[in-house]
Amino acid sequence: MLSEGLTIDGKKLAPYDNARKWAETDKAERSALKQNYKDAGIALMVSAFGATGEEEFQDYTPMAVPAVEVAQALAKFVKDNDLDGATAAESPQSDFHTELRKQLPSPYIISHAPLAPWFEKAFGSCYVEIAKAVDDSVNFYNVHTLQGGTSLAEISTKANISPDKLVSASL
What is the pLDDT of residue 80? Predict the structure, then answer.
């Protein structure tokens, strides 16, 4: 089980927060909880690379260790813990995402959670190219917007993402 962690290139990858709690929950209890969520129409996903209290967090991103190996470890965690998919809270590299989708084919859910400014020229439009490269295999984008910032309509146009795949979380 990944709750003890996985080491890649000398860096330990391990789930934190609720992902760790889920992984450490008894399998029978996890199964019952999962069924309750499924019955309510709710998919259970793990969020990777989001904020956590861990200082060593940056050591775990696809930029710090081989992206393909991180994707494989994340997919293993999803499968081992009977989750419905994963979301990447940091700007995922194309090779990371490609490997994640290879390891988690449909019906697994893959989403991204970019910040709206990542689509702006002021930020180098860094996410536009990533979105164009992987959009066909992303189920949805949970875009973190700032009041008065880039709208979902603008993001849809800039990155050629279907509006149906964009949801917003205001910060």
Answer: 92
- Cβ contacts of 45 within 8 Å, gap of 6 or more: 78, 83, 84, 85, 86, 87, 109, 111
- Maximal C-alpha separation, the chain: 49
Give the global pTM. Answer: 0.80
Domain span holding position 153: 2-170
Cα distances (Å, whole numbers) of residue 8 to 5, 46, 60, 99 = 10, 20, 9, 16
The number of domains in the chain is 1
A 10 A CB-CB count for 69 gives 16
**pLDDT, position 55:** 42
**Amino acid 56: pLDDT:** 40
Residues 168 and 143: beta-carbon distance below 8 Å? yes
pLDDT for 3 equals 40
The CATH number for 130's domain is: 3.20.20.80
